[in-house]
Write a structure and sequence with these properties.
The protein is of the alpha/beta class. Helix content is about 40%, strand content about 15%. Bound molecules: 3-methyl-2-oxobutanoic acid.
Length: about 280
Amino acid sequence: MSSHRQETIRRKAAPDIAARKGKTPIVVLTAYTAPIAEILDEHCDVLLVGDSVGMVVHGLPNTIGVTMEMMILHAQAVVRASRKAMVVVDMPFGSYEGSAETAYVNATRMLKETGAQAVKVEAGETVAETIAYLVKRGVPVMSHVGLRPQAVMMDGAFKAKGKAADERQRILEDARASEAAGAFAIVVEGVAEGLAKDITEAVGVPTIGIGASAGCDGQVLVVDDMLGLFSWTPKFVRRYADLKGEIARAAAAYAEDVRERRFPGPAEIYFAKAG
Ligand code: KIV
């Protein structure tokens, strides 16, 4: 097959990420917008258009209200602005749980309309069949076990998982079932470090930890959390910047300049040509 466009840089894809099991750690951050995706592309193996976008960007209390349309718009922006990183998009609540056929229709729509390379689903035991259905039909799937934010209504709150032995076992089974179904990687969220290590040893595909263990095959954080855009972040977040402070300082300086008529200055206005 010939192509008119010669891509000099090949984007990472599911097999590249799967092959990193037990090798150099996989770097993942969420991204929701073009300018942030463009900056992160150089530094990340995977850009995750997480449904956390509902909380982080749209101010929702949880991810339940996130729609296919929201995910598609944000994923399109991230794909447009990146060239090297693999782009993985979350399937929102209600778009894949009902039946494997519905999941296939929604997942293929997501990939066709965005140009992303894979979808992510939160994988309780029952979702393994759907993962298998999608993978057999050519849809690369990243799975997500442990704390599953889309289960917030069943759980009552976002709670760390795997403290009791039966729950630990169930999460380990979710991870094993995801791998058996063909997931190319597994996000492990909000579990005790020992469980994250057990999962990482038990499965042959990379684990990507968040609030889990440095022993995972990779790490993911919500980008706005690590950039310090919020006053409060969960314990597992390390802040690498204080953008909230920076933005507040910039807004205050701008407001003062406007009020004192120092902005715009001569360099920031247009002048008519003489004569
Ligand atoms: O929605 C999201 O951002 C996620 C990550 C936190 C793993 O699922």
